[in-house]
C-alpha cells in the first residue's frame, strides 16, 4: 500500500508536501489536495500543513535551478487543478533536483510533456480571460466583472489588469471558485464577496453583494454602443461560424454582452 | 452625450471601416505612464470575434466617410449613393476611452475618407491621437491611417502619437491602380511610407544615444492589398508584398479578398464569392517568407505564377523538390526542419529542444504535435519504419489529400463546380 499525502490545495501547500517528502525520505508518495483526495485507495494518509518557511525553501531552490520560463510552467501547470497533476509536478521537481537544472526541454519524456501541455492550457485560459473580461461601471466608480474561468487563472491575470487600469478601481470575481481580485488604486488584494443569494445567478448582470451594485443608466448605453459596433464590423459575406465558435466557445458567451443580446 | 446619434454614426462609420483587415494590436512598447490609463507593451489581445471569424481588437472606425475620391473598389467612393456621417474629435476620444475602460478593446484604429484635402484629413486624425495621449494620458494602442498625399511634416507628427501607421496600397499593380483609381497616383501611397520609415530610423538611432528620446510609431508600418479585383497573379501580389517588406521594413502586409461593393464593369460583379481560400494561401506564403526562411522566388516564379489551391504552398514546394528529402529529424539543421510539410515553427523549436535529450521516434513526434499524416513522406527518425516506396510528387499529393480533409475542401469543390 502506498502513502497518500493531502494538502490544502494551495501552491505553498504543494511545495510544503514536496519538502516533507524529501525531509522524511518518503518512497513513492501520492500527493492530492484534500478536497479531491481519494482516501479509500491508500493504506496510510497523512495531512501536510502548509508551512510558508518550508514552501519558501523549496520554492527558492526551484527558482535557483529553473529559469523563469520553466518555473512559470510548473506554477501554471499547478493552476490547471487537473486530477493527478501533482504526480507530474512532483516528478518535475524531482527531475529538476536530480539534474541540477531545468528538464523542461525534454519533451520526449511523457511526464515532462504533460506538465508543459497543462501549462499551455492554463496559459491559453489566462489569455482568454484577459480578452473576455468585461467591466461594468457601478456605484463608487468601481468597475466590476464576473467570470468563471476553466482554470484558476486570477492569480495570473492580476498584474496585467493592474498595469492597464492603473487609474480606476476594479474587481474581477471568479464565481466558480468564489473569490475575486480587487484593485484599490494602490494594490491588488484578494476578496471574497458574501453573496446575498447563496447560489448566485451567473452572468453579466449579477453583481451580488457588492455595495450599491446597480448599474448606472449610462452603463447600458455603453453596452449598447459596443453591441452596435460588434454588429456593424461584421462582414456578412464572409460568415464562418465554425471559426467563430473556435475563437469564442459558447461557454464564455454569457459574460459577453455582444453575444448575449 | 447623445447616445442615439452616436449609435447611428457608429453603425455607418464602423461598417465603412471594416474592409480594412488589419486588427493587430501587438508589437508596441508603450507602457503605462504615471498611473494613467492603458498599456500596450504586452502581446496583442482579441477581445471578441465577429461571426466571420475575424478578431475584434481595436475600435476600427472612419472619422468620416465623406470622400473626394472615386476609387471603384471602395464602398465610400464619391459616386456611391450612401448615407454619410462624421464623428467629432471629442466623440472619438470619448468612445475610445469608455470602450477601453470596460476592457472591450485594445485601442483605436482610425481611418477616414479624404475630405477637403489629404493634409486636412491627416491633420484631423492626428488631433484625435494627440488628444488621447496628452489630455487623457491614454497608453493603449493607436493605429492611424497615413492618408495618401499627406505631407511629410504631418507624417512625422503622426508617429509621435500613433503606435502604428499604415497606407493601403490596395491594388498590387500600377496598371490596376490606373484602371480603378484614376485620380490616385502610385507615388502618393509611397511618399508617406517613406516619410514614416525615415522617421522611424532617425528616432531609433537617436534613442541609442539619448534614452529620453520619445518613441515613434513603435509598432511600425503595415499595408494592405486587395486580392481578386484586377486579375493579378499570385506572383504579382507576393512580389509586391516582398518589395514592401524589404524596401519599407513593413511589419505586416495584409491580403484582403475582394468583396464586391459596386456594379462596375471593371470589377467582379456583386455576388461573386469572396476568394477566401486564395487569401488563405497568400497568408501561408507570407508566413513562409517571414518565419520559415523561404525566398519568394522558390515559391512563385515564371513556371509557377499561381499558388495551388488544393494544397498549401509549403507542401507544394516540397513536392517539386523531392530531392531534398527525406530529412533526418535527429540531425537536420533548423532550416531544413522548417521545410518539412506538417512541421510548423513551434514544432521545429520543440524538436530542437527535445532531441538534445534523446533520439526522437514517431511516438515522440506525434506526442509533441506534428502532423504525421503529412510529414511521414518527408522525414526519417529513430525508427525502422519509414516510407520506402519511391513515390512521385503526384502520388504523395493524392495520398495526403485522401487521408486528410482540408478545412477548405468544401469551398474548393464549390468553386470547381462553378466552372464545370
What does this structure look like?
- The complex is a heterodimer of chains A (261) and B (420).
- Chain A has 261 residues and is an alpha/beta fold.
- Chain A has two domains: 3-125, no CATH class; 133-260, no CATH class.
- Chain A has nine helices and eight strands.
- Chain A has helices spanning 11-23, 52-65, 68-79, 85-99, 110-132, 154-164, 217-232, 241-247, 257-260; strands at 3-7, 30-33, 44-47, 136-138, 142-147, 169-174, 179-183, 188-191.
- In chain A, helix 3 crosses helix 5.
- In chain A, 36% of the residues are buried.
- Chain B is α/β, with parallel strands linked by helices and 420 residues long.
- Helix content of chain B is 42%, strand content 9%.
- Chain B has 16 helices and ten strands.
- Chain B has helices at 3-17, 89-101, 118-134, 152-161, 174-180, 186-209, 234-248, 276-291, 296-299, 313-320, 334-337, 345-354, 362-367, 372-375, 393-403, 409-419, and strands at 48-49, 55-56, 58-62, 107-111, 141-145, 164-166, 221-227, 252-257, 327-328, 379-380.
- At the A-B interface, helix 5, helix 6, helix 7 and helix 8 of A face helix 1, strand 1, strand 2, helix 2 and helix 12 of B.
Domain tally of chain A: 2
Order of helices and strands of chain B: HEEEHEHEHEHHEHEHHHEHHHHEHH
- Describe the largest sheet of chain B: 6 strands, parallel
The number of helical runs of chain B is 16
Structural class of chain B: alpha/beta
Multimerization state: heterodimer
CATH superfamily of the largest domain in chain B: Aldolase class I
Strand order, largest beta sheet of chain A: 4-5-6-7-8
- Return residue spans of chain A where pLDDT drops below 50 for at least 5 consecutive residues: 208-212
How helix-rich are the residues of chain B, as a percent range?
A: 40-55%
Structural shape of chain A:
elongated
Described by strand count, sense and barrel closure, the largest sheet of chain A is: 5 strands, mixed
Beta-strand residue percentage of chain A: 5-15%
Low-confidence stretches of chain B: 412-420
User: What distance lies between the first and last C-alpha atoms of chain A, to the nearest angstrom?
Assistant: 56 Å
**Domain unit count of chain B:** 2
SS class of chain A:
alpha/beta
CATH class of the largest domain in chain B: Alpha Beta
Distance between the termini of chain B: 57 Å
Amino acid at each position: 500500500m502506498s502513502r497518500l499525502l493531502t494538502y490544502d490545495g494551495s501552491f505553498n501547500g504543494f511545495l510544503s508536501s514536496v519538502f516533507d517528502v524529501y525531509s522524511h525520505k518518503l518512497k513513492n508518495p501520492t500527493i492530492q489536495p484534500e478536497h479531491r483526495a481519494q482516501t479509500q485507495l491508500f493504506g496510510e494518509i497523512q495531512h501536510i500543513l502548509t508551512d510558508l518557511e518550508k514552501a519558501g525553501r523549496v520554492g527558492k531552490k526551484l527558482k535557483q535551478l529553473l529559469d523563469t520560463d520553466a518555473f512559470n510552467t510548473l506554477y501554471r501547470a499547478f493552476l490547471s487543478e487537473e486530477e493527478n497533476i501533482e504526480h507530474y509536478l512532483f516528478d518535475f521537481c524531482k527531475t529538476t533536483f536530480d539534474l541540477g537544472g531545468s528538464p523542461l526541454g525534454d519533451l520526449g519524456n511523457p511526464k515532462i510533456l504533460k506538465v508543459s501541455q497543462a501549462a499551455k492550457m492554463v496559459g491559453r485560459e489566462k489569455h482568454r480571460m484577459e480578452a473576455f473580461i468585461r467591466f461594468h461601471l457601478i456605484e463608487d466608480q468601481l468597475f466590476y466583472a464576473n467570470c468563471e474561468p476553466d482554470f484558476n487563472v486570477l492569480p495570473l491575470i492580476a498584474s496585467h489588469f493592474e498595469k492597464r487600469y492603473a487609474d480606476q478601481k476594479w474587481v474581477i470575481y471568479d464565481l466558480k471558485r468564489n473569490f475575486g481580485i480587487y484593485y484599490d488604486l494602490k494594490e491588488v488584494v484578494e476578496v471574497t464577496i458574501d453573496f446575498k443569494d447563496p447560489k448566485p445567478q451567473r452572468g453579466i448582470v449579477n453583481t451580488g453583494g457588492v455595495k450599491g451594485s446597480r448599474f448606472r443608466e449610462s452603463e447600458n448605453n455603453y453596452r449598447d454602443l459596443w453591441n452596435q459596433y460588434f454588429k456593424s464590423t461584421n462582414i456578412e459575406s464572409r460568415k464562418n461560424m465554425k471559426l467563430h465558435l473556435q475563437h469564442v466557445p459558447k461557454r464564455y458567451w454569457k459574460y459577453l454582452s455582444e453575444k448575449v443580446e | 452625450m447623445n447616445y442615439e446619434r452616436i449609435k447611428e454614426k457608429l453603425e455607418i462609420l464602423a461598417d465603412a471601416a471594416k474592409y480594412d483587415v488589419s486588427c493587430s494590436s501587438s508589437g508596441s512598447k508603450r507602457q503605462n505612464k504615471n498611473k494613467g490609463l492603458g498599456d500596450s507593451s504586452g502581446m496583442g489581445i482579441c477581445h471578441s470575434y465577429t461571426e466571420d471569424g475575424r478578431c475584434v481588437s481595436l475600435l476600427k472606425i472612419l472619422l468620416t466617410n465623406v470622400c473626394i475620391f472615386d476609387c471603384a473598389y471602395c464602398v465610400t467612393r464619391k459616386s456611391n449613393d450612401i448615407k454619410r456621417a462624421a464623428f467629432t474629435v471629442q466623440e472619438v476620444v470619448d468612445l475610445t476611452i469608455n470602450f477601453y475602460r470596460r476592457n472591450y478593446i485594445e485601442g483605436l484604429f482610425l481611418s477616414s475618407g479624404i475630405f477637403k484635402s489629404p493634409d486636412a484629413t491627416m491633420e484631423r486624425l492626428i488631433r484625435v491621437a494627440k488628444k488621447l495621449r496628452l489630455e487623457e494620458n491614454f497608453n493603449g494602442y493607436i493605429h492611424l491611417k497615413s492618408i495618401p498625399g499627406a505631407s511629410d511634416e504631418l507624417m512625422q507628427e503622426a508617429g509621435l502619437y500613433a503606435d502604428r501607421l499604415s497606407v493601403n496600397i490596395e491594388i498590387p499593380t500600377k496598371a490596376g491602380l490606373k484602371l480603378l483609381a484614376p485620380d490616385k497616383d502610385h507615388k502618393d501611397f509611397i511618399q508617406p511610407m517613406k516619410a514614416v520609415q525615415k522617421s522611424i530610423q532617425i528616432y531609433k538611432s537617436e534613442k541609442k544615444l539619448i534614452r529620453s528620446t520619445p518613441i515613434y510609431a513603435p509598432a511600425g508600418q503595415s499595408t494592405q492589398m486587395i486580392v481578386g479585383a484586377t486579375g493579378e497573379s499570385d506572383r504579382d501580389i507576393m512580389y509586391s508584398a516582398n518589395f514592401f517588406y524589404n524596401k519599407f521594413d513593413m511589419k505586416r502586409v495584409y491580403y484582403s479578398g475582394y468583396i464586391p461593393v459596386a456594379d462596375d464593369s471593371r470589377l467582379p460583379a456583386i455576388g461573386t464569392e469572396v476568394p477566401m481560400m486564395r487569401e488563405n494561401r497568400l497568408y501561408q506564403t507570407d508566413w513562409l517568407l517571414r518565419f520559415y526562411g523561404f525566398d519568394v522566388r522558390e515559391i512563385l516564379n515564371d513556371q509557377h505564377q499561381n499558388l495551388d489551391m488544393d494544397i498549401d504552398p509549403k507542401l507544394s514546394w516540397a513536392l517539386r523538390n523531392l530531392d531534398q528529402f527525406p530529412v533526418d529529424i535527429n540531425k537536420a539543421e533548423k532550416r531544413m526542419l522548417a521545410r518539412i510539410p506538417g512541421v510548423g515553427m513551434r514544432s521545429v523549436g520543440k524538436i530542437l529542444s527535445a532531441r538534445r535529450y534523446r533520439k526522437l521516434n514517431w511516438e515522440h513526434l506525434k506526442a509533441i504535435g506534428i502532423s504525421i499524416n503529412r510529414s511521414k513522406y518527408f522525414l526519417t527518425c529513430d525508427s525502422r519504419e519509414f516510407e520506402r516506396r519511391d513515390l512521385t510528387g503526384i502520388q504523395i499529393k493524392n495520398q495526403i489529400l485522401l487521408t486528410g480533409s482540408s478545412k477548405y475542401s468544401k469551398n474548393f469543390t464549390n468553386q470547381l463546380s462553378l466552372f464545370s
